[in-house]
Amino acid sequence: MSNESLANLMTETRRFAPPAEVAADANITAAAYEAAATDRLGFWAEQARRLSWATPPTETLDWSNPPFAKWFADGRLNVSYNCVDRHVEAGHGDRVAIHFEGEPGDSRSLTYAELQRDVSRAAHALTELGVKAGDRVAIYMPMIPETVIAMLACARVGAPHSVVFGAFSADALATRIEDADARVVITADGGYRRGAPSALKPAVDEALTRPGAANVRSVLVVRRTGQDIPWTEGRDVWWHELTERQPSEHTPEAFEAEHPLFILYTSGTTGKPKGILHTSGGYLTQVSFTHHAVFDLKPETDVFWCTADVGWVTGHSYIVYGPLSNGATEVLYEGTPNTPHNGRWWEIVQKYGVTLLYTAPTAIRTCMKWGDDIPAKFNLTSLRVLGSVGEPINPEAWIWYRKHIGGDRTPVVDTWWQTETGGVMISPLPGVTEAKPGAAQVPLPGISATVVDDNGTEVPNGSGGYLTVTEPWPSMLRTIWGDDQRFLDTYWSRFEGKYFAGDGAKKDADGDIWLLGRVDDVMLVSGHNISTTEVESALVSHPKIAEAAVVGATDPQTTQSICAFVILRGGAAEEEGLIDELRAHVAKELGPIAKPKRILPVDELPKTRSGKIMRRLLRDVAENRQLGDVTTLTDSAVMDLIQAKLPTAA
Ligand code: 6R9
C-alpha cells in the first residue's frame, strides 16, 4: 500500500472523553496497560484466575511450536461449570441469566439456578444419546434459550459444538456436518422470523441425505413453533421428551485447558469454509476478561444485550461464554429489528432496562435510514455503554449511535476482532480512552497488534498498511479443523512470526489504529491505494446519506475507478444535483483522487447474513459482469433491484 495516500485521508477530529462517573468506577484503569506491558504473560495468568479451575494452571503459554499455541496447558476446568454452577454456588441462583424475548412477543426469564437445571438435564440427554467427550455436535437453531443451553451442555460433556447459522441452507449445513464429522445434530422445528414461523428441521433432513453426513445417529429437536415437520423414527428425538426425564443435577468433569470447545466456520468469500478451532481455558479467559473490561460489566446491576445471532462468533463469545462466565444478566431476542415495527429494539431496551448494548454498524446505519424519530419514542436512559462490531463504523454512524441511542452521554466502544481471534483485540475502554469516532484505537491490555508495510516492518504514525498481531493471545484460534497447513498458509505465512488478519489499517498521528476494511477491498486508483471504508465514511458524513458501499471497477485510464452505491436517509428522494454534490463532498473530505466516478442511489445493499457489505457482488455489477456466488446473501433479490437501476447494465 502506498502510505502517503492513506495518510492524507480521514480527518476526523472529534474527541469524546470518558464520562466522569464511568471513569471513577471503571473495572479497568490505565494501570492495566502498564501491568500488561511490563509482564504480558503474568497479566494473562492473573486474568485466568477470573475462572474457577479444578486444577489451576502453573504454566501460562507454551509457544515451543509456533504458531501452535498452548495456553494454561496443565490446568483443568469445565467451561459450563464456569458459566453456570459457580454463580449458583456463590449465591446468585436467583439472578436472571437470560431474559428471552420471542419475536411474536412471548417472553420468559431464566435464572442461573434454572439454567443450571436445564443445562444439567441436557448434558445427561447428550450422554444418553451416546455423546462422549471429543464427539462433535452440530447445532442448527433459532435464537432461543435452548440454543444457549445446548451449547453449554456440549461444553459440559466435552463435546465440541459446531453452531451453523439457522438461515444457512441445507447445503451449507451438510458441508459443515461433514467437515466436522458430527455425530448428533440439535435443531428445532422452526423459529419466528419476520412475523412468521420459519422451518429449520426440513433443512436438517435434507442435509442428512448427503453421504458425508452418514455418521449422524441422532437429531434432537426442540419444539418452538409447533409447525408440522417430517419425522424419522429411531433417529429423531424431541428435546422436551428426552430432557424432562433426566436428573436435574449433573457433575461436570474437568477437561484440559486445551480441550476443544467449538468449531465455527467462517463464511469466507472463496473456497471451502474454514473450521476455526477454539479450545477451553485460554478462550474463556479472554472472553471473560474482555467482556468485563470493554463493557465495564457490573453483574449485579447491568443488563447486557448483544444483538448478534449465536451462529456467529459474536454470539458465541458475547452472548454465551463472556457474559455467562461473568454471571451477567442478558437479553436474548429471537427476531428481526423491524418486526412488528421499526422501534422493536428500542422497545426491548426500554422493557428490560438494558444498560450495555452491543450491535453492528449495519444495524446502526439501518436505524439512521429509518429516521431519528423512531428511537426518540422510547426511554433509552438506562443505557450506559454502547458497543460496535463487525465492520469499520463510519464516524457519522458512530456519532448518530452515541447521540440518538446513547443520549449524547454514553461511551461508544468500537471493538475489532475476528472469528479467528475469539475475543475482542482492539477497542477503546469506556472508563479510560478518549474516544475517536470511527477508530478501534488501542490493543487491549495483554494484546500486541500493529500496522506493518509490505515487508512486515511496522509503519510510522500517520501511515497505513496491514493489521498484524505480533504476540500470541489466549483466545487465538488453535488451527483450522483438520487442516494445519491451511492454518499456516492463511494466517502465518504473509509476515514472518506475525498473525496476518487480512484487514487494512492505519496508525494516526497519535499511534491509534483505524481499520480500513479487508485488504481485498482496497482500490488502486491512478497509483494510489484508497480504502473503500474511507470513501464510504466520507459519503455517510453527508447529511443525506445513511449508508454507502464503494468498489473499484476496472478502468482503462486509472487502473480502477471508484463506483459508489448509496442509500439516502429517512426515505429522502433523489434530488437534481445530488450526485454532483456528493462527488464534491468526497473531494472536499478526502481529496480529488478519492472522488467517485459513478454514484448510484439504491434502496438496499447486498450483505452477508452477518451484516457485512458484499463488495464483491457490487464489483460484478460495476464491471457489468455476471454475478458471482450469491448464496451467502441475506436477500438475493437485492441484486436484481440494484442491477435494474444501472443504466448500462446488460
Ligand atoms: C467479530 C467478527 C471479522 C472481520 C474483520 C474485519 C471486520 C470486525 C470490526 C471490523 C473494523 C471493527 N471487523 N469488527 N472492522 N472495525 N470494529 O465480526 O468476526 O465475522 O470473523 O469478521 O470483520 O474485517 O477481519 P468475523
From TrEMBL:
SUPFAM superfamilies: Acetyl-CoA synthetase-like. The keyword Ribosomal protein does not apply. It comes from Streptomyces radicis. The gene is acs. It catalyses: acetate + ATP + CoA = acetyl-CoA + AMP + diphosphate. Its EC number is 6.2.1.1. Pfam families: ACAS_N, AMP-binding, AMP-binding_C. This is Acetyl-coenzyme A synthetase. CoA binds at residues 193-196, 314, 338, 526. Keywords: Acetylation, ATP-binding, Ligase, Magnesium, Metal-binding, Nucleotide-binding. One of its GO terms (biological process) is acetyl-CoA biosynthetic process from acetate. Gene3D superfamilies: 3.30.300.30, N-terminal domain of ligase-like. It is an enzyme of class 6 (ligase). Signal peptide: none annotated. It comes from the Bacteria. Residues 31-83 form the Acetyl-coenzyme A synthetase N-terminal domain. Acetylated. Deacetylation by the SIR2-homolog deacetylase activates the enzyme. Its cofactor is Mg(2+). Catalyzes the conversion of acetate into acetyl-CoA (AcCoA), an essential intermediate at the junction of anabolic and catabolic pathways. AcsA undergoes a two-step reaction. In the first half reaction, AcsA combines acetate with ATP to form acetyl-adenylate (AcAMP) intermediate. In the second half reaction, it can then transfer the acetyl group from AcAMP to the sulfhydryl group of CoA, forming the product AcCoA. The modification N6-acetyllysine is found at residue 612. The keyword Ligase applies.
